[in-house]
Every structure is written in C-alpha cells, then in structure tokens.
Amino acid sequence: MTPGENDGLKPTYSVPPLTSLCVLSPPSSEKIGRPAASSSPVWQCSWSRDGCVLASCHGAPDSCVRVWKKEWTGNNSDHGGEQEAMRQRWFLAATLRDGHARTVRSVAFAPCSKVLASASFDGTVAVWEKFDDGDSDDNNDGGYGGVGETAGGWECTAQLEGHESEVKCVSWNSTGSLLASCGRDKSVWIWESFLPGTIGDAGDRDPDGGGDGEGEFECIAVLHGHTGDVKCVEFAPSLGQWGDGDEILLSSSYDDTVKCWAEDGGDWYCAATLSAHSSTVWSVAAAAGGTRLVTGSSDRCLAIWRCYTAQEKRRMDPDSKGGDGLWKCVGKLPSAHDGPIYSVHCAPSRAGHGRIASGGADDRIQIYREVPGGTSDAPLFTLDAEADDAHDGDVNCVQWHPKDGSILVSCGDDGLVKIWR
Length: 421
Hints:
By secondary structure, this protein is mostly beta strands. Helix content is 4%, strand content 47%. The chain contains 3 helices and 28 strands. The chain has helices at 29-32, 81-86, 310-316; strands spanning 20-24, 42-47, 53-58, 64-72, 88-96, 104-109, 115-120, 124-130, 154-161, 167-172, 178-183, 187-193, 217-224, 230-237, 247-253, 257-264, 267-275, 281-286, 292-297, 302-308, 326-333, 341-346, 355-360, 365-375, 378-387, 395-400, 408-412, 417-420. A 4-stranded antiparallel beta sheet has the order 1-28-27-26, with no helix packed on it. Strands 2-3-4-5 form a 4-stranded antiparallel beta sheet. Strands 6-7-8-9 form a 4-stranded antiparallel beta sheet, with no helix packed on it. Strand 2 (42-47) and strand 3 form a beta hairpin. The longest helix is centred in the C-terminal third of the chain and has 7 residues, at 310-316.
C-alpha cells in the first residue's frame, strides 16, 4: 500500500491474515421450520461486558435477536493465549423473536450482562431482561431448549416508541443509566433507564439482573440537527471539556457529518459538528480514554479525530467562543477499504495503543495499528492484519473483545457471526 500525501499511512509490504477461531451459524431451516440463515443478514453483534456472551441481530426474512454463550472444552484450569481461544466453544443459547415485527438493525448489551436493547425497522426499541428460569450450564445447549430457538429466560420488559420510522442504532452509556437511539427520521433520542444494576435502579429488584416487573424508561431528550438518516450513536467520556455531564453522545449520519452532543444542566445540546468526509458516515467509535475518535464512511476513508481542551482551542484560535473543547481531524487513512466502510471499532487499552478494526462492503476486515514516527496531532498507522473475503458479502459489524485484545467478532450479509484472532 503506497501512502499518499499527508494520509497518515506508512507503507505495508506483508500483512498477516486474521485467524478464524469459530463460525456461529443459526440452526438450519429444516430444524426450525424458518427461512435459511444465509437469507437473513446479521446486522450487528455485541459482547457482554465479561466477553462470555454474544448477541447478534438479524434482518428479514428471519428477523430476531440471537444470544450465543461460551463454554470451555478440555481442562479449564489451563487457560491462556492461543490454546485458551482454541478451546472455546460457542453455542446458540436463545432466540428472541417477540419484540419486533421487522428487521432488527442493532443490538447492545447494557453494562449488566442480563439486559439487552435492540432497535428495529418497525420504529421501536425493545429492552430484554434475562431471568434465571430454565438456565443451566450443565447442558451444552445451556438449558435453553435444543437448538436455542426458545427465549431461554429472556423477556421483553419494555418497548420504547417515538421514532417516526426505522431505528438504526442503540447504545448504552457506561453506567447503563442512559440509552440512546437514532433513526431514519433524522433524530437522536436519549432515554433514562431505571433498570437493575444501574445508578437509576430503585433497589427493589435483583441487582444481578432480571426482575419481576416492567423495565422503566423515560425520554429525556429528542435531538434534532442532522439533515439525513442517523446511522450510529455512541457515548464517550466528556473529559470535562463538553458541558457539565460525565459523558457526551456522538452521532453519525447520511449527511456526511458527526455531531457531538453534550449535557448542560440536564439539557442536551449540539456542542460540535465534525466534517471531514465526502459521503455517509456509517460508524463512529471512541478510543480508550476518549481523547480520540475514528469514523468510517462511504468515501472509503477512516478519519482520526483528536479532542483538544478548551484551553488548547483558545490557543489555536484566540477568537474562538464558548467553553467547550474542540474535535479536530488529525489524519485520514484514504482508501482504507475498496468500498463503503460500515463499521469501525477501537481496541481496548489491553490490545495495545492505537489499534482500529474496520469492515465494509469489500467483504474485508482490516486491522490498523498506530506506529512510531507520528504525534498526537499527526498520527501514523500501518495495516497490521486483514481478512480478505471475511464474509460472503458485506461486513456489517466488527467489535473487539472487551477483555482479550487479540480477539474480535464480525458479522455480515452471509448470515454468519465469526470470531477472529
């Protein structure tokens, strides 16, 4: 790969491939009497916080949320490295069908691993809670019923309505007290959560998850500002630079921009609009620590953003107004893919500083790593690993494992979920 002028890429001559650890495929149509898995794309996947459970969401004609669970084969006392990964086995633990009437476009675990949120083209957000009834780890189907086509103790405890059309993404904040959603109606909604295990929990239910009543949510903000579909939302630390809240909310859109929303006195406002792409911004991801963002776009580029403090902003522009910080594009990886980039994710700190995973319409997964020679104002990256033909069709989502920085998961139009090292 030959770097262009100021493109933030170093030449790469030999790129090692990612290793496929396992492929998670739904039951065959013969077993469940439903359309074949390959005819239903997998739009997104989400790890539980401990990395032992995966959720995936599926499109028409077999719209649902599937929950996958990990078990160990062999001797559990000798975990570590590649041998540990190779002894993992994943099985389908539950299938959630009752919450939505159309394609399920997004799914996200709350910090409590017994709570899920899903977003659908039917215009709703569903919240699912895991109850322990029927759950047994002694069976290799998790006690969830044969091929995992039952709900396995999961119940839809809340359905959030308000969007005028398709909901494209859901995301929890770090404490599970807030849930954000976005959609085709160009709006971003923020819901306050009073679920168990969050700071809004009233304390009358089991703090480990599950419960005996309806999940409680209150819409605290409806944010307008984008002029096109909003594709992605993600919370990030405010770092004391944006409003007076602990976190900001980032949203990316068909209008080619990313907006940074901040809280001030309980009210949310647009603190910044980030413009560096020439086409739809499909995905935005915050790096560990929150001082860097990465965005992926239909223009085939990855853009790298740095957060500058309000004081640094005033030094760079003495005429600048307001007390907020500044997001500035400090680098681009042009032609990072050979087609639109649908998903980007920044590695956890344990994976090593500056590693980015991306997936897109060229059926590939790319891993970029920051290398010496750059600065925080002009970082340099190299292609560290890749998977050509990672899926038989678009790669819709890539997500790093929350605990093991060498593992990531992907899903695609071929109806499969794959785990990679």
